Amino acid sequence: MPVIRLPDESFRMATVMEFTSPVAEFPLGSVFENLPGVTVELERLIPHETLIIPYFWVRNAETEDIESAFEQHAGVSNIRLVDSVEDEYLMRAEWEQEYFGILSALAEANVVVLSGIGTKDEWRFEVRAESQEAIADFREYCQENDIPIAITAVHAMLPIQGEGYELTETQREALILAYERGYFDTPREASLEEIADELDITQQSLSSRLRRGHRRLIGATLSSSV
User: Fold this and answer.
1) 27 DSSP 8-state letter
2) Domain around 126
3) Quick one: CA dihedral 25, 46, 209, 39, positive or negative?
4) For the chain: N or C, fewer Cβ within 10 A?
5) How far apart are CA 174 and CA 183, in angstroms?
6) 151 with 174, same domain?
């Protein structure tokens, strides 16, 4: 596992880490055996002492019986369909407490998943912790329990231009580049694919960064004035 130098400003600073992991290391990974063309994106994942109950979206699934595709998956006690919009399915899962893997590491270190996107190739996660110490605990847990992760970035939550709009560096980079390339113009002057290629990330990762960045900006501006 590569050594990543954490920011020096404060060991208690809220920190964001991005990493990848093999498909099999997350309970939902086995769905790609039945549906190799789908993309799974976690809606939100909250560590808890006894249970983790996330919502997640399944996209590009060419089947109406989506629930059956998730049957008999290690670490999953229950998965059910909540809603569907065209070819996107919102699912709800309950994990088995005894499951050993990334879920255990997240709960043990009290780390929150900001983004989790899975394909047949790998899982890409972006997680946030209240301190660098929690990130270090997460990494140590993974090392001690032979949970393979590849860390791609570690950075602090940063305000934008002195204001209280806390975006990650990757969210800020994606928003600014999309704006500069005319992605928000009508008609659009750049596609999601073009911007993702320029950032050397997947379209799913870019879409997730833009969505989370919008959420933070709106939450810090429009919603606070209501």
Assistant:
1) G
2) 15-156
3) positive
4) C
5) 11
6) no
